[in-house]
Every structure is written in structure tokens, then in C-alpha cells.
Amino acid sequence: MLTVVCCTQLAAQGFSREQFPEGSYSPVTNINPNGYPRVLADNSVMFRVSAPQAQLVQIDLCGTKYDMTKQDNGIWTVTTQPQVPGFHYYFMIVDGVSVADPASQTFYGCSRWSSAIEIKEAETDDFEVQDVAHGEVRTVYYYSKVDETWRPLMIYTPANYQAVKANLPVVYIQHGGGEDHRGWMEQGRTAQIMDNLIAAGKARPMVVVSSNSNVRSRNGGFGGGYSWEGMQTFRKELLENIIPFVEKNYKVRKDPKGRAMCGLSMGGGQSFYIGLRDPDVFANVGVFSTGMFGGIRGASNFDLEKEVPGILSDTHTFNKQFDVFFMTCGEQDPRIEYTRSIVKTMHDKSVEVRFKSYPGDHEWQVWRKSFYDFAQYLFKQ
């Protein structure tokens, strides 16, 4: 395996002397901008690696495995089907062993370090670094009394943070299963989105806190699961450790109207339960691509009133407690019809919930757009 990896890296250096397919480009996720993989004009992806001693090399992209073809010089190549725009994890499988591609940057996703490829999409410049005032993202550590250890947070502060006298509103943003606190700041491009929205006057300056919700309690329990009971470990972590740390060390508001909670997939479920059942903490909630309504294994017969008491039986009071309640899902996500159905149930009962869907499956381009829209709704009252 070491031989394969080294050969791949050496071969990648040599690719710079080649003529690439016309209209192709090197994705920003590549280590070498003059190397492979290459995104072709139709959004298919050409992979090329050197592994002369390997017997079988495959690319696993978005759950589809592509067998590579070996040339006489030991170079393996394959071109995938066209891919939807956005950020996609992938792996290289060499003789049955799945590894990260050394030609790609690595990201923590799928519960491991993963390669990724970014397929460009038109009119998404607000997800890119622009010539505007830039905020700052720092990794800081707080002590968890739940896990009895030091744990990380990644915190975005806007460009004018040091000069601001008044406390800023704050968003607590949650990752999905198989990811961690780095997801929203790296894969999700939270800082770029916030910088550009603030510069354009489309969003208020705010602090964004991304925590690692993969927390285990020393007395048992894990911070996941699509049930109120399953949320209790992370709920305790958030309310008793994370929020007090942020409010002690950052210039942020300490009232429900000045706080928001949002998240994707597993983090969407956490935001739904914790955000909607703790209106004395959060007056703004965003739920992106959660599977608790259906579309994933184990999700069925979701009882909305039972899970959020009063949402249907005392809707007037529920609506008064929240300034923003926003839900989204990808249009090709298996969760979409279940999400639309639960939103219809809420609308039929006059629950004030905004809903948007976006082209895409269960992936980051949908979630970037979700946060981009959510941030523009926040803290306007």
C-alpha cells in the first residue's frame, strides 16, 4: 500500500506536463492544481492514479464504485458519470482496501478522513472567498463536565467583532452523523457565506458556534438518535457547558431572541428537538434534511404533537415563542416527501414554519444554501 501511495504522489507531479481534456478543470479540493482528478465539461470526473503493482483499483464516488482500467505503464484511469454540483466525498479502493486519495485534500466525513471533490455550480459566488471584509474562525477548547474532558469548538466572529460594543446575536450550528465540529466551517463554508452576506447587507453581523455533538456521557448515553431521550446527552452538553462557555468568553447575546440553533441531518434532529422544546433558550430554529420524519431506516409514524407538545394543540402560543422556524431538504433526498408531508401538517394547523427545497440529494450544497437562506432571516425583529 505504501508503494501504491508513493507512486500515486510521484505520478501526480508528472501530470502537470500533460494536455488535459479541453474544458476540464482542477477542483479546488485537489492538492495539485495541475493534477488529477479533473472535472470535465459535462461534470463527469476523470481520475488517474499510478499503481503498477495493484491488481484492482476502484473509485467510490457518492456510493457508486467505478472500476479503473490499467494501462501498460501502470497508470489506472476512469471517467465517472456526470455529477451534480457541490461537494462530494470519495475513496480510492486498492485491492479491496479503501483509502483516501493522496491527490485530494482530506475532510472528516463518513466517520473517517475522506477525500472530496468540489463540482462548480453557477451563481454560487457567495460560497467563495470574495473581496470583502473577512471575519475569523478560531478553534477553542472548553471543559465538558458531561464527557469529563476538553472538547473543541470552532467559532466564527465577523470582521467588525473587536470594534463592536454591543453583544452580537449567536448561532449554534450542528453537523451531521459521521462528521464533527469542522464540517460546517470547512465543508460548509460558513465563514465565506457569512462574510459575503454581511458585506452585502443581507445578514446582520453574528457569531457562529460549531460544536462536536459526538459526545458521550461518563455515566452512559450518546448525543444522537432521533428521539427526545436520545438528545439528552448533547442537550445537557449544549445548555450546561457550550452555551455558558461562549457567553462567558464572547460578546454574544444571552436572550432567546439573540440565539439561534440549526443543523443538518443528525444536527437537524438535534435542532428540532432541543430548539423547539427549549423556547426559553432559542427563539430561532433551522432544521435541514433531518430524517426523523421518514426516508431513513428506523424512522416511521412520527407523532409531531407528542414530540413537540403544543405545536398542534396550542399553535398560537408555539408561534409566539419563535421568530424564525425554517426547514429545508434536498429535492433528490429520500427524506423530501416525508419532510413536505410534515410541513403540510404544520401549515394546515397554522404553524408558522418556512420551508425551502433545493436541487440535490443529502449533501453539502443543499446545506450551504440552507444556511445561506436561514442567516438572512435571523435577528431582524
Percentage of β-strand residues: 25-35%
Helix vs. strand class? alpha/beta
Series of H and E elements: HEEEEEEEEEEEEEHHEHEHEHHEHEH
Annotation field: number of helices: 9
Oligomer type:
single chain
Would you tell me the overall average pLDDT? 92
Shape: globular
**What's the count of strands?**
18
Radius of gyration: 22 Å
**Strand order in the largest sheet:** 11-12-14-13-15-16-17-18
Helix share bin: 25-40%
Cα distance spanning the termini: 58 Å
Largest sheet: 8 strands, mixed
Which residues sit in consecutive blocks of at least 5 with pLDDT less than 50? 1-16
Structure description:
The protein is α/β, with parallel strands linked by helices and 381 residues long. 25% of the residues lie in helices and 26% in strands. The chain has 9 helices and 18 strands. The strands form 3 sheets. The protein has an 8-stranded mixed β-sheet, sandwiched between helices. Strands 3, 4, 7, 8, 9 and 10 form a 6-stranded antiparallel β-sheet that branches. Strand 11 (136-144) and strand 12 (149-157) form a beta hairpin. The protein starts with a helix and ends with a helix. 43% of the residues are buried.
Describe the structure concisely for a colleague:
The protein has 381 residues and is an alpha/beta fold. Helices cover 25% and strands 26% of the residues.
In terms of topology, how is this protein built?
Elements: H1 2-14, E1 38-39, E2 45-50, E3 57-61, E4 64-67, E5 69-70, E6 75-79, E7 86-94, E8 97-99, E9 106-109, E10 112-119, E11 136-144, E12 149-157, E13 170-174, H2 182-186, H3 190-199, E14 207-211, H4 232-249, E15 259-264, H5 266-277, E16 284-288, H6 304-307, H7 315-321, E17 324-330, H8 336-348, E18 354-358, H9 364-377
